[in-house]
Amino acid sequence: MTSITATPDTATGSVQLNITQNSSVTKVTRSDSNGIADVRISAGQFPSPSAGTTILTDYEAAHGFNLYTAYCDEYVTATNLIPNPSFETGYSSWTLNYCTASAVSSFSQMTKSGTYILQAASDGTNAQPSVCMISASYRPAVTPGQWVGLGAFMATETGYEVRIWINWRDSAGATLTNTLSPWRVGSFYAGATQQLIDQAPAGAASVGVYLQWRNPADTVNPMASGKRMWADAVKLFIGDDQASVQALLDQPYFDGSTPNTADVVTAWTGTAHLSTSTRTTHITTVSTSANLTLAKPWLMVPIAPNFSETAESITDYSSGRASNSTVHRIIGRADPIVVQGKLGTRTGSLEIWTDSVASANKLARVFDRGETVMLKQPVSGLDMYFTADDLEVSPYSVEGVDATRYKFTVRFTEVKRPTGNLSGALGWNFDALAAGYGSFSAILAVYPTFDDLTIGGA
Known about the structure:
Helix content: under 10%
Oligomer: single chain
Strand content: over 45%
Distance between the termini: 40 Å
Largest sheet: 7 strands, antiparallel
Radius of gyration: 33 Å
Number of helices: 5
């Protein structure tokens, strides 16, 4: 499944996004204190290839929390490997150990899927009776190193306990070892939803499943005949990493009879209630988040972020918003006629402290391209895109060549966020460049010359 990670970089005031795609990604949006916007990309990066990794650097991320959403179009299928997982047709595929069993519909409080649940009753011959799925016809295949996750709802007599097993078998069907969950109280009605996850050991070729119950007050003598255990919604998943298997266990139970939705379709792989089942989910977005901490304000050109500089501190800031309403005062009429208009964007000035003329000139370089500039600040909500009406550099006080400090004043008009791709691959390295495009031919199609690639043209 397509995934996205976000890593803040305080040195550049940006967030790096790594997208591992199993389908083409068409865009990535960012939601922060400034609102929702598309993450700016280099030309030709989207739609991305349908496989591999795409790296983006978001230079316009705000101070604080940033939520990223990648838009894709793929279908992800998970398989519940338990045949007859909700006991709708009795206990076919299951084996009884020291108990009798039947499917019952008289305890709706404990029914998690369908109409029926399993009711097993001790036959009085063993202290720990169980119901298991160990037949070679039903044991799911596994290879060493894979992860197996087992889940089930279980309930039993008041004061009794339940647990689940993963039974590891070799290629000949012999037991290698068992992974057992802790005993848990599974009170009548309330029950207990169990989870168990482990990695297949060397030599493992298949897995069996056990659902077991006991009387903790007497774990030696046979359990009294007729003491019951109920089970429903058994699920088992196999995957190559623990996190993905755990994620499947944590999702709601499904089998082939689970009702479909607009984005989720379930099916049996064979005979209903006697085969494994699949759930296919239509994935259109994946998300992640990052907290970016800005130690100082930044001035940057959004489409050419290599023209970025930190400001030591903003020592003065003032702004206003003019009304765009028009008032007509009519001779002989007491009340005016007003054509209402929205407030305009901010206009005003900001003053930045600098330690030298050289530092002030670095800030002026941000405005040299004649592009819209972004101000990012450590205080949420004060960021803005603006154009400079004029710039001024003047000393705070004359203290000699080395000691004089300068103020850099910008009179500004706030504007909308500029559109367009990043200009060139400024600040690029070969690894990031390769990750952003499917091939060097694709890079050449976007950037015909080396100058286009490195400096983005005029």
